[in-house]
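Exercise (ungraded).
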Amino acid sequence: MRHRTFFWFFLPTGLAMLLFIALPIISVVMQSLFTPHEAVLIASENCGPFGCTVSTTVDQEATAQIRADKPMGRFVGLDIYLDRGHLATQEIAAAWASADSMGAFFSEVFNLPFYRALTFTLTYTFVVTPLLIMLGFAVAVAVNSLHRRLKGLMIFFSLLPMIVTPLVGSLILFWMIDSRGVLGQFISYLAADPSLSLKASTPLMWMSLIVYGIWSSAPFAFVVFYAGLQTVPKDTLESAMIDGATRWEQIRYVVIPHLMPLVTFVALIQLMDNFRVFEPIIGFSAEAHATSLSWIIFNDLGGETRQLSAAATTSVLTIIGVAILLSPVLYRTWRDFRGKT
Amino acid sequence: MFLKKIAMASVVSLLGTTAFSAGHGCGIEARVSIVGNEFPAIQTVGAGAAECTGGEVSKNLTADHQKINVAGMSGNPAEYTSAIVANSSIVALMNEDVIRPLDDLVAKHGASLKKNQLITINGKVMAVAFMANAQHLVYRSDILEKAGVEAPKTYEDMLAAAEKIRSMGLMENPVGGAYKAGWNLAQEFNNMYLGFGGQHFAAGSATPSINNEAGVKTLEMMKALSAYMNPDYLTHDSNATNAEYRAGNVALMNMWGSRAATLTDAEGVSQEVKDGFAIAGPMTVGGGDSAASTLWWDGWTVAKNISDAEAEATFIALTHAIRPAVLEDAEVTKQAVWLIDGYAPTEAAVGVFAAAQMNTTPYPMLPFFGLMHTALGAELPDFMSGKESAEKTLADIEAAYTAAAKEKGFL
């Protein structure tokens, strides 16, 4: 394609990307570098139905003046990035200095909100992604070998978890694992412990979230792999059969190599999605045991006093995290591309 | 045909006049737009404002009102001309300077308002309160009778009663509590901490001061209570706690007055639970004088970034919605502890009234209190689930609050 043609061809997409991707990211980065002005506090007498009290309020006139002078707020550079709610450099240095063992040091680090959330987010991402790829692939192979009359029905059922809205799906599972729910009762019966509660135990809660994650995302992998299976060359398969390959060997040496680019694609999308895990934590009310980076953003914005700068900072850190996660896959794609040209 | 037209016309004009008279003489000349929470009393206020004629009255009553009211009032002109708030949520509107003083409007149109309905901050009327709320004891009189205990007046009595109910095999988890990680759990901490005589901040400053003896005692009491709760308590908000009560699984709980009145009205509640339903005042703790609870008001505000005509229309419509005559409807009277002139308390109101008489502390209207509430909600679960000591959790709360307060410019 000539450069000029390419330019006009790409222009609408480029503009849309600038408007909807680049500008919001710039805005978030700016927000994370500025914080609200220092509050001008005054003592005031507040009265209401329960009598009068002397209390503190914000001096609106003085604050309005400061805001008019500098509408962006205070420039604080990387202060928010380094504070306790985010990278917590000081706290980590203090923990390093005072801890007498590595265990004590790590327990201090994982007590900090950002690292705790990162631990769960990464565990979730790296457990859920491979398992959902395997499950999706297994389901695709199974459905593909069904009689054609059954296929339509099975495809529909296999897609159901993806059709259900994530929040609703997680709420359904949440009620099932309740200590009075179907699964909750069954598990406590199996464990012969009537007081066992999935929601009260951190490891069990993590497992529930991970099981939910695999359940809800496997259909995506299934759809992609099922489509891919339709393109597996029949000739190669037949010649493998003639050579005496078992069913497993056919899958291992013919089907999987053929579907490898699709595995990369699914892994790419799911790594990104799982790194932003959010709905199941809300649906499961799992805040007490598991938090994620997205949940921190939600929590900062959901309080009675919104912390815009803190939320923006966590957003930027999430973007950086996604970029790091995807870099090996992107590097591979780039290398393959170079290899071809 | 002609007759038909005449008949039609007269019907239409008749309807027109009735519609006009249904306005109860509330005429407004500009638009009114209300955002607020969705519980029954606020629905009544919204419907009352919508009776006014002459200008468009729209309302958006939703549980997510807090997430949208600041944004919806920050523009110029503001989308919402009024936000219905409580003493916690008015702070965010004050901090962002999006509501206007109402003194001139009170002088002009506020003859039906009582002085104690006016929320004045630094000498200026910033909101008009219409109802009071507090958390207090809700219990099952039949279960307590079987166990041979009185309705507890202190949290220590509550623990003893719970132990008795459990040991007699009446209920496995007799205590209910809205202990869901986050806002609810933090609110229970506030109640208990104030009951122990604690202060959240060093006097006159935004410096936190909860890592002390009262804080430790508070956490120990909460932990002791949680031993008698459903093991999933960290996921139970007030709706889930009420569901446990309705299902007959709970005999003692600290519950909101605004939810207690209609607690057993739901479908499927057994006769036993309905008959045993009883309300009492809030409890004290640790031998303290004032109740381990907080007092709340709900009221309405008027936006700053709107025209004076719109502000006047909003004030008239909302004053109309809380005029003394609304209490003539017995259903409305039952919905809340109204602050409106001429309100006579119903049976469901005894809990909130007792709270008001027991020197209960009002929920603090400090600009930085919301940050403390968020920090409490995020850090308390570590202690409740046994991962940390009380002192460590209290230190974490102070550190989390300090980071947030520095960002917002309070420290």
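Further reading is listed at the end of the chapter. For now, observe: Chain B touches chain A through 66 residues (CB under 8 Å). The domain at 10-133+296-352 of chain B is CATH 3.40.190.10 (D-Maltodextrin-Binding Protein; domain 2).
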